[in-house]
Amino acid sequence: MVQQQALRDFAQAMTCFFAGTRGKPSWRKAGRDEGFRIVAVKPGHVRKLSRRTGEVWIPKAGWVRFRWSRAVPQTKSYRVTLDRCERWHIAFASLPEPIPAPGTGEVVGVDRGVIVSAALSTGEMLTVPRLGPARRRRLCHLQRRLARAGRGSNRRVQVKLAIARLKAREADARKDWAEKTSTDLARRFDVIRVEDLCIAGMTGSARGSVGQPGRNVRAKAGLNREILRSGWGLLVRRLEEKAPGRVEKINPAFTSQRCSVCGHVAADSRESQALFRCVACGYTCNADVNAARNIAAGHAVTARGGVRDSGPANREPRLFAA
């Protein structure tokens, strides 16, 4: 059953690839995505034993207990996986109902950043939880030990497992933050506007080629890691799944340089990462909150129509609705 389902999944992946809706399937790396899927689940194959414990019937293995962390829906398939830190998970396939809109007509803009993971147009600034100082020091120590460990040795296996457990803790906190934040935004606002960012392009390597090597490669690699740790893509994906049709993507052009009060565009208005002071009207605000208010307005200043420092201060830039 497991082998037949794996072939069906591969056939479906190739069909989506040739249809142009998905990318080409890649080879699975050892130690990642270890697991199998069971289909045609019959009634009674999933039962609850206590408040936090349940059992599932797995062919050729019998009854297997799992932690009942949430309500299990009526499902026809489930997947059992083993992650890199040797934790077993079971996921039941189901399509949850979308979160209904509150009906208040409120609109919120979300500006995503590295220092502040998500700044809202209401003035709220949300940050993804990270590892504490002690765990960060331990992670650096383990990475140095991994670099000295010989390939194929037992020591290397143990160090990789310790690193995976620390990274899994950080990933679990990031996913929990994204779930709670997306649910809160979907319940509070009717329309949620975010920047239309190409995260894959923003986190591309800066190494270049042998003939044309890149510059500031280490700095760019550090920026890429911080962008991925901030959970930009995860937050927007969960918002689109929980609030379908209510998430709008805005062109991010000049949203951080435009004054949300007078509309003047100037690079000098962004004095620092956190401070925005308009050179035309003198309005002062947190830079991320100012950008979030521009996003909430549903406008983005084009490069051709933007007002530069040489133009009049009270000139209104050209705008277009997303």
What is the topological layout?
Layout: H1 2-19, E1 34-39, E2 46-48, E3 53-58, E4 62-67, E5 77-82, E6 88-92, E7 107-112, E8 118-120, E9 125-126, H2 133-148, H3 154-188, E10 191-195, H4 199-202, H5 217-229, H6 232-242, E11 247-250, E12 275-277, E13 284-286, H7 287-296, E14 299-301, E15 319-321
Helix pairs in contact: 2-3, 3-6
Give a structural overview.
The structure is a single chain. With 322 residues, the protein is α+β, with helices and mostly antiparallel strands. It folds into 3 domains: 2-92, no CATH class; 107-250, no CATH class; 267-321, no CATH class. The chain is 33% helix and 20% strand. It contains 7 helices and 15 strands. It has helices spanning 2-19, 133-148, 154-188, 199-202, 217-229, 232-242, 287-296; strands spanning 34-39, 46-48, 53-58, 62-67, 77-82, 88-92, 107-112, 118-120, 125-126, 191-195, 247-250, 275-277, 284-286, 299-301, 319-321. It has a 5-stranded mixed beta sheet. Strands 1-5-6 form a 3-stranded antiparallel beta sheet. β3 and β4 form a beta hairpin. α2 packs antiparallel against α3 and α3 (154-188) packs across α6. It starts with a helix and ends with a strand. The relative contact order is 0.10. Residues 301-322 have low confidence and may be disordered.
Give the key terms.
single chain, 33% helix, five-stranded mixed β-sheet, alpha+beta, 3 domains, three-stranded antiparallel β-sheet, 7 helices
Q: What's the shape?
A: globular
Helix and strand pattern: HEEEEEEEEEHHEHHHEEEHEE
CA(first)-CA(last) distance: 48 Å
What is the count of DSSP helices, taking H or I runs of 4+ residues? Answer: 7
Biggest β-sheet strands, sense, barrel: 5 strands, mixed
